[in-house]
Amino acid sequence: MKTFHFKVNGEEVSVTCPPTKTLLDVLRDQLDLTGSKECCGKGECGSCTILLGGDSVCSCLVLAGQTENVSITTVEGIGLTTKMDVVQQAFSDEGATQCGYCTPGFIVTARSFLNSIDYIPTDDEVKTALGGNLCRCTGYTKIIKAVQTAAQIQQAEKAPS
Amino acid sequence: MRVSEIDLVSPSSVDKCLYMLRDHDKTFRLLAGGTDAIVQMKDGKRIPDIWINIKNLTELRYIREEKEGIHIGPLTTHTDIVKSELLQKKADVLVGASMEVGAIQLQNMGTVGGNIGTASPAGDTIPALFVLDAQIELSSFNEKRTIPINEFFTGPGKTVQKQNEMITNIIIQPQSENEIGIFEKLGPRKAQSISIVNVAITLRMGSNPRECLEGKIAFGSVGPTIIRSKKCEKMLALGPLDDTAIQDIAGAAWKEVMPISDVRASAKYRRSMASALLERGLYRLMNRWDAR
Amino acid sequence: MSKEVKDVQKLENQQQLKWVGKSVKRIDGPAKVTGEQKYKTDFNYPNMVWGKVLRARYPFAKIKGIDTSKAEAHPDAVCVLTHKDIPGFNGFGIVTPDQPVLCEDVVRCTGDAVALVAAESLEAAEEAINLIEVDYEPLEPVTDAEAAMIQGAPQLHPDGNIHSHVTIVNGDIDKGFEEADFIFENTFYSPRQMHAFIETEGGWGKLEEDGSLTIQCPAQYGHRDKLQIARALALNPERIHVYSSPNGGGFGGKDEITVQIYLALLAQNTDGRPVKIHLSREESVIAGIKRHPFKVTVKTGAKKDGTLIANKVRAVADTGAYASLGGAVTALAIEHASGPYKIPNVDMEGFCVYTNNGIAGAFRGFGVNQVCVGIETHIDMLAEKTGLDPIEIRKKNAYLQGDRSSLGHVVSSSVGTIETLMEAEECDLWVNRELYKSQVSEPWKKRGVAAATSFHGVGMGIGTPDYGAATIELLKDGRFKVGVAIEEIGTGNGTVYAQVAAECLRCEVDNIAVIQGDTKETLDSGTISASRSTYTGGRAIATAAPNMITLLTEAAAEILNVSKSEIELADNKLIVAGDESQSVNYKQIYEKLYEQHRSMRVEGHFYLPREKKELKNSGGAPHHLYGYMTHVVMVEVDTLTGETDVLHVVAIPDVGKVLNPQGLEGQSEGGAVMGIGYTLYEDILIEEGYHKTKNFTDYIIPTIRETPIIETIPVESNEKSGPFGAKGIAEVVMIPIIPAIMAAIHDATGARINHLPATPERIYKAIQETKKQTLVSR
Asked: Helix or strand or coil: residue C528?
């Protein structure tokens, strides 16, 4: 057991666990942040996606021992029902969530993508950006639309009034 | 050993890391992006006593051009490569290959040093590094040696790297103005796929239409390690690369590869695909060249 | 008929609907996009223990002994259980309980459970599991369904390897073929598709202080799970409380028992400590049910004018080691094997056969996916031979409402096939197909466009209980709690339930709280399967609503001191007819009823209509109601490699009535992409009884990069028995796309792929063979 200090969703936390425990398990079991899901455990599905220092990564392939002093954002840090992020609002409005188990991973990846652009992405650009997230329910059509809608709202909000 | 009992240390410098690797009493494994290493640990394979986490050794994460070539730090991520303007201009084949690794999350995590060290025959960046004549610098606490990439791999998952060594630099030869490259991959789908066959191609073009002065072709996933297609390479410079020439060159490729059958594809199909991907790649390159 | 029932019916017929037919946002959307939605596998308890299942080492072997002593001695083990520790019946299975909870004398597939462990950590549970010593005597596995049927093959079960044999015969098949101008005969092989729900099987078991059991486990029929648990534990079912909603995806894969009985057994042996099991993807691949791989031989006879006159089908389904719903899947396959057509002479039979290839069970489409390719491919071949238009041939042969189907029964429910085909003919992709086909992105690529049509039964068919029930309760704040046991597995049925309730009760959707998947709070309402949940649950709510309106009317009349007949339902309140100033709202009514200690909960029950006469030996055919569908698709094939992209899909379902356009599109888009996965990518490979495909690295489901443009054009045939005219579509949305893609590949390349999935390698090989044939014919 070792103790690790890092930031999750803006708050300093310290966690005591074996250094080989995955960050995903730390988030879910020790910090009660269960938005991030385990689906494949091997980096194939994106359900556990979080932001590590701004980059989207699979938290099932990050070890607790690698988290010292890092800054992490999970889906809960992007927004909660009381104050949803535009990406979350767009996914909800466009019907881009069905069973919802993959959705947190999509939200985090989409947020990271939208942080990196300042225009409304084409279908192909959204597809490249979200290729690492598997969904079995939606057929992805409404997810593409939701990301574009979010980009549009983000543009409008940024535009000088 | 229980996974929960494995220790993890994070050396603060390359020197400290190399010092740790001297210790022969314990098994160490270097942990960079984790996209292969952690998966192996979860599968109960190659479990070390101690993980050496090198993810934070930022001194090994760089892309810069120097006299003898472009230096790429082993901890450079695939995303770093994709975004590098220098590489987009002077190593487009490597950029293309890095874009084909998994998907965004794995490109953010995975490193070029990790891709080399894992030595998967299907590793996407490796054929690209072959055609860019990469030199791999291996360092131990007392020594440094540089290995040409074609001597680096000894079999699937096997390299000349010793237990006390780590990759500390990768030097590639930049493509010149008239040099163009492409990476072609056949996977079961477009994202998150392991190559069934892949090929990296670079061509140095002359001043006449579709005149190729020389070229390099490296196939992945069709043998225990990467296969340079020397016969096809020779054919590249025999005349203008028109459609007939492209078909002739591609038609020769299947004889140079030695694939196996597995759950992803049969050996016979892989052979045919070596030709198909070379044909497709050359067509696409020539279209790009014509339209430049 | 009471006035209230008439009111609701009137409501259903009127054009001005407030909620029904609108894209009401999913009620669970915000919780899902923020990660606040708790799934059963998300819970955590401080004093918990981890459960783990020991799976069989061999696909087929005798068990000579099980030694658990070393596992029990593990310092962190809490309990180790084998078949000896099962208090009740050691078996489960929806129809035939032939699958042991824990194997005693024989294992029949590598997914078989042999022992259970609970321990202080997952790691300790895994260690303890590995310390259990099982003495096996391996047997020669049965790996091919047809070989399993041969006399002398090793027997998996006491009654032999043929679990079921169903037949449907109508007309005179020999005469039909004699009259035929063309006869087509082909054999088709289908993949062992995995549901690949994103949430693997898992959940919690807890023995409560009062001795009752609480099971929290994503599932598709909690009320039935309760009975299956009770049977194994020899426990009064009323002492078991199952929470089974929401699911992180189901698609039929959580219809059968997954881990519920293991959780219950372990919970009885952990001194009240909650026990968790959550399968890794690898264990889910091995232990979870799959779609039945079929070998289907189809022989179709047709006349020059395009009339189909004979269809002979022989289907063999590999159900793996246990029956689960294999018998029903095979029966449904045969019922649908001649398509939504009126072929006068049919002779169809299906075998459901045991092998040692894992376990197969329910999966979206339920056998129809596997058989629809035969008749649809043959119609396209007929079109090619005769030069007739493939859509015209389908229109010519499709039965209408009131016609006799190929099965020989008169279809009295709504039928939208022709309408879907007319939409297909008029859609841009079809009209301009030659133009689109010419727009290939690179010269070695070829495009093809094709259409196919199919259908799928709604509900259970004859012989299986099929009913829905709903409760509506007035809450303190004037809102309504609507309880329907049918689980949320991703379809958004809860949102539709809220819409139907709000429409019937004339309140806001926000004022409806929906409870699903809770065996204490909700009445048994059947499964979330068989395309039945919107239809059944919606109808049950529409049946309960008049009872609530009666209750509200009585109370309003008392409060306003007028007679009941003077009370009228208005938006969010009740008024005295003609005088809006005299009104009471639902909160006031609650207070009145509360004062009087009166019940504020009403029920509605709905028995699905069914045909009177079962076709002899058909296993439950015909259904009363079917959903119909046509797909038009465009593919692009890379002829150098065989890689195939589906570029454009037009999905035309006959939905009866659209209840929620956004939800319908979601089903249609998801179904299309799952159909693409089935046709082009997905297969769990098993060799000699061992899984070659182990996880998501090799099990290829479509990513967002494979998704095409999908247009959904619904056709409304107004099904009288459904809520507001609606019927189920959740399965049919992935069916005709399968033969449509196959036909489009043929249109593009001339190659026919009868062995799915049509991987790049298979397509490449077929193209090469087509080239060879062309050379030979020259």
From this structure: coil
